[in-house]
Amino acid sequence: MTVAGSPSTPAARRGRPGYDQQSVLAVAVAAFNRHGYEATSMGMLAEELGISKSAIYHHVPSKGDLLRLALDHALGGLESVLTRPGAMVGAADARLEFVLRGTLAVLTERLPFVTLLLRLRGNTDVEREALERRRTFDREVAALVDAARHEGSIRRDIDPRTTTRLIFGTINSIVEWYRPGGPLTADKLADDVILMVFDGLHRR
Amino acid sequence: MTVAGSPSTPAARRGRPGYDQQSVLAVAVAAFNRHGYEATSMGMLAEELGISKSAIYHHVPSKGDLLRLALDHALGGLESVLTRPGAMVGAADARLEFVLRGTLAVLTERLPFVTLLLRLRGNTDVEREALERRRTFDREVAALVDAARHEGSIRRDIDPRTTTRLIFGTINSIVEWYRPGGPLTADKLADDVILMVFDGLHRR
DNA sequence: GTCTATATGTTGATAGAC
DNA sequence: GTCTATCAACATATAGAC
Questions:
Q1: Closest chain A residue to the Cα of B191, Cα to Cα
Q2: CB-based contact B38 A34, cutoff 8 Å
Q3: CB contact under 8 A, A202 and B155
Q4: Is the alpha carbon torsion for A31, A34, A38, A40 positive or negative?
Q5: Which CATH class is domain B72-201?
Q6: pTM (predicted TM-score)
Q7: Which CATH superfamily is domain A21-61 in?
């Protein structure tokens, strides 16, 4: 999926100038992440796009729809991880690692969209619906953690709920600092995260 | 320090009714965390406090000062961890654990204030100044991580910057789910975090 | 310590021209 | 696909009464 940040990017759109919905969305998501969704005005978006406020309404019916489109892109990516073959068969330990690596891949590939999702507070209906879908995803991963624990591959001296939350916390917090294109590749990052979470930082 | 959430809490304030600066601040911080600082209007605060907008200006000169007071409380707590005796002497490994436990203690004791600090995006001068103080704190902890690495107590197959960011990510993400007064005490949480970060979740 | 009234600008969204 | 013009509602903050 191509998400351009300026009008008439040749690779993204052939033909006439001006924005399309995807390129408007990319700019909107960046602004939502910088100021927060509620604090981002259509006037600010218009200024960044270089068009008038009302021109935005040609691409999207409301500010809430910009949010809904963005969150759907993030959630769709995460949900697809759970339906991939590697998430369904084998030892719980291996399935868990597969899902965590898949989550990390979606997080880095759709970074601004997932960032927006993870910063939601549930203040509007659109946000609450997205948070409900996110909770369903979280519950399925939590079930995998429990299975790996029962299997004996995960330590039992930490409460299962705490275990799941620490795993998610570690992974989700990556949106706050990881930037693709830097020295750290997404694959190496995934290796590092799996290493710390399951084997720890101490030398042994 | 007492931070009340309603006017004339007997333990917090003796004498006349009405809010004082601390109780206004507590309500404001909760609202900032729920909606984001920029998206929280003085009208919303007035409604939650049950007083008029202009009455708030009796306690604090501006909305930005509410933010500044709150961030100062969070940063003061974090900075005090680095000047405590345990952070200054001994093996780097032990000093690092001491500082991380101290950070976790401040995070849980001043939870709403630290939450606000960690969600800043740097859109105003007040925010940028706070982020600069936070970066200074982060740099000092990063130096401890580097020292523990050189000492040989921390694994070398993960980049030092990544190591520090994963540690901070894991700890900072706790504000998104931990609630004091629940079944998990702050001390047990700190034990769990230290255990996962340094020894990993795998059973050995 | 709180109020009403007010000043001045910005909000999301629409109507209709080009 | 973009524009100007417009709307009612709401933003931060101040002045001055009680």
A1: A158
A2: no
A3: yes
A4: negative
A5: mainly alpha
A6: 0.94
A7: Homeodomain-like (1.10.10.60)
